[in-house]
């Protein structure tokens, strides 16, 4: 029970962001012609905020199903990088647990897990990890349901500023992770690259390209400047590297 409570506590900042954005998705989904059951099914089984919002726009514009599926697939390719980053800490979990974890991993839960798993023992609390994921998922589905049932009362979600909720939540999740100059440098480079790629027409690839660029630049820094990062993340070159082996 202690692990479950800890997982719920970790997910609290995510809940604050997911409920309003999920609400916006629910409203937009119904206004785009998606039935209530379809919107709730998307939040329950797809569970991809940006992918769902993009899909709603494409469906509302009359795009073919193949285009919707391909676009959301490309948007969510960044999960390859996130999964690779967490894989060393979850290698002993077994295929079923890894599959369940992957199904509920989002950008926000990834940020929480990266921050918390680096400070835990070799076998991180599975109850806390899954409780965090399930709580975040429940918040997203709950926010979507609220939006679906209140869609007739909201003409336009943009004046409510709900689209900024995720950005604000990301900032809140990022700041505690900038524990060294290397972390701060990586965050600033990734942000600058993401904006630059977006303005240059990279579209939804900007996040993945920015992540690769920032990680590459930080890896090229002198060892003295990255030792803190390596120790905290449990990668070779720091004390935590012995645990990952």
UniProtKB/TrEMBL annotation:
Entry keyword set: Cell membrane, Membrane, Transmembrane, Transmembrane helix, Transport
Cellular component GO terms held in the UniProt record: plasma membrane
Subcellular location(s) of the protein: Cell membrane
Source organism, top-level taxon: Bacteria
Annotated membrane topology: Multi-pass membrane protein
Keyword Membrane: yes
Keyword Protein transport set for record: no
UniProt main location, coarse: membrane
Ranges that cross the membrane: 12-30, 65-87, 127-154, 160-175, 182-199, 205-223
A biological-process GO annotation: L-valine transmembrane transport
Family, per entry: Belongs to the AzlC family.
Protein name: AzlC family protein
